[in-house]
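Now for one protein, fold included:
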Amino acid sequence: MTCYDRRDLGLLLLRLGTGGVLAAHGAQKLFGWFGGGGIEGTGQFMESIGYAPGRTSATLAGVAEAGGGTLLALGLATPAAGAAAAGAMAGASAVHAPNGFFNQEGGFEYAASLGLTAAGLAVTGPGRLSLDHALGHTADRTWMLPAAFAAIGAGTAVMLGARNRRLRKIREGEQEALFE
């Protein structure tokens, strides 16, 4: 291997694997592929776990996963792609957190692993076996990393805050119903 080193190959494998899994999860939400619920079914599920409006939440999560995953796999706009995927996985982790850490108990282990890997790829960069590299890093500038994480972090915080307020109101309503 003259032109590419182990790091480039390793980043390619991480991008393809993580990006492919994220893209498949997003396709479940957006199109109902791979046994997913599509926008309608996923939207209903999102409403049931506190994300409202459900269709909008399903669309945002699906686009972040499918779009972020596809872009990660291609190594294109890597800072934005990794940040978007990490934000979506932060939302998924919040849903699973009450079940503990391990995935076998419904915990957040899997979502956190995907999110951290996506974030790590955004920070590390895509390597030389990527579209970003082939295009001269026009969509992978140094300033894009903090900008992408700031924007996605703010959006994720707003969504999680709204979800937490909804869930708190639901719990308070259930408690009041018990005492009636």
